[in-house]
Structure to design on (117 residues):
């Protein structure tokens, strides 16, 4: 196993920010990412909507989850890049999580650690 420490950065962002975040992460050297459409809510719960005169609450708000695994030396730059691009200074901008990764294995070649990224 490669001894370089790797970390997974998971970011939950607003859907409209995805293209800009992807572009910025590519600029800082992120070579790949996984993107998922997700739904959820935070402290504020859902949001109140009015449709044809009837008010209702959307319990789960649509969001995008971006997952990238990077060497530890890039983590702060990645986190800062996501914050700079995804922040609108409004409630619901999202969250970023940093998680240790024990190993990475490229399925095709069996490469491990940072070389598998």
């Amino acid at each position: 196993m490669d001894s370089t420490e790797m970390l997974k950065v998971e970011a939950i962002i607003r859907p409209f920010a995805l293209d800009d975040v992807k572009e910025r992460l590519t600029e800082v050297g992120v070579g790949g990412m996984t993107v998922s459409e997700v739904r959820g809510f935070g402290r504020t719960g859902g949001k109140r909507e009015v449709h044809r005169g009837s008010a209702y609450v959307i319990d789960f708000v649509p969001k995008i989850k971006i997952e990238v695994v990077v060497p530890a030396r890039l983590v702060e730059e990645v986190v800062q890049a996501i914050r700079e691009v995804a922040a609108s200074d409004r409630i619901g901008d999202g969250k970023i999580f940093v998680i240790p990764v024990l190993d990475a294995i490229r399925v095709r070649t069996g490469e491990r650690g940072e070389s598998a990224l």
Summary: The chain has two helices and six strands.
